[in-house]
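Quick one, probably user error.
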């Protein structure tokens, strides 16, 4: 330690330490924000990540993810644009940028929509060029090619080719991609055929049962939805993905409300699955069940809890405002 007696050495040590310490604290804080995001604590995550969003690609990316959860495609795109500027080699960042542009298309004028659609296509195709094996990117391109008009790059032929490419890499993901292609084409019979086939081929997949039940629910074929979920619950009574779908189906249909209430309460009492809905949305669904049961005070409490967890939850805002 004799070298520390030299004032130049001491000054250099202080300079290095003062440089490295903020970097270490920055990394630690960003990691904390990501952990909060993974726990679906979006309000707390945003507070932490905002401290670093302008200078850190990961922080900007997760701030974009939070805005996507809030349904704000424009703000999400701003953060994702910042992330790709800082790290232009990330296929994941470009994929989510494409999703954000796509979300905006749903709510802008007919004049602006083609411009954003082309930006979405460019972002997704850039992501694919960066990582051809990224199946999430390929899934998103299936949806884009199948759903977009030809003058902005949509192509049913390209969508079908992409499904085949996904199947070649991963049969399970390819089957889901085929079902998604049917849904985008509004071919319900095709989607049902794909998903019922998957129930046989992949009987251990919670996602397959949830997707089939969701398809039936979206078509207001609630009896079939509950039949799928009942079969799964008998085999896996505590499966989080299935419990949420039971609650969702009850909230949409007004049927089996007690079962739906119990399912959502059980869901909230346990750790949420990685790809499951955020607790705020589950509280909103529970509120709709209470409202349908005539328990308006309990419904109001659930809607308020949803908004405490996610103040930008538009469905909970509308539900609370409309509760008389």
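Nope, works fine. Designed sequence:
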């Amino acid at each position: 330690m004799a070298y520390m007696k030299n004032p130049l050495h001491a000054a250099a040590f202080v300079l290095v330490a003062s440089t490295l310490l903020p970097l270490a604290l920055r990394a630690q804080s960003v990691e904390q924000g990501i952990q909060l995001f993974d726990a679906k604590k979006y309000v707390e995550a945003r507070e932490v990540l905002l401290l670093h969003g302008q200078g850190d690609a990961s922080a900007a990316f997760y701030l974009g993810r939070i805005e996507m959860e809030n349904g704000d495609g424009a703000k999400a795109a701003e953060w994702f644009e910042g992330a790709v500027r800082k790290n232009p080699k990330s296929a994941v960042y470009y994929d989510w940028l494409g999703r954000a542009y796509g979300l905006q298309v749903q709510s802008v004028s007919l004049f602006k929509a083609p411009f954003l659609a082309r930006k979405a296509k460019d972002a997704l195709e850039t992501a694919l060029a960066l990582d051809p094996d990224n199946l999430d990117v390929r899934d998103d391109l299936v949806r884009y090619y199948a759903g977009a008009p030809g003058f902005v790059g949509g192509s049913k032929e390209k969508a079908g080719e992409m499904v085949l490419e996904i199947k070649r890499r991963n049969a399970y993901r390819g089957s889901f991609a085929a079902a998604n292609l049917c849904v985008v084409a509004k071919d319900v019979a095709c989607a049902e055929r794909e998903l019922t086939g998957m129930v046989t081929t992949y009987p251990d997949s919670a996602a397959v049962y949830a997707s089939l039940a969701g398809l039936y629910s979206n078509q207001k074929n609630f009896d079939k939805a509950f039949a799928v979920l009942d079969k799964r619950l008998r085999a896996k009574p505590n499966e989080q993905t299935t419990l949420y779908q039971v609650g969702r189906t009850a909230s949409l249909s007004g049927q089996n409300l007690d079962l739906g209430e119990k399912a959502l309460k059980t869901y909230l009492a346990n750790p949420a699955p990685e790809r499951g809905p955020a607790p705020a949305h589950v509280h909103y669904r529970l509120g709709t069940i209470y409202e349908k049961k005539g328990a308006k005070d309990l419904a109001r409490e659930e809607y308020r809890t949803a908004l405490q967890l996610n103040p930008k939850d538009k469905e909970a805002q509308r539900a609370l405002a409309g509760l008389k």
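The longest helix spans residues 7-38.
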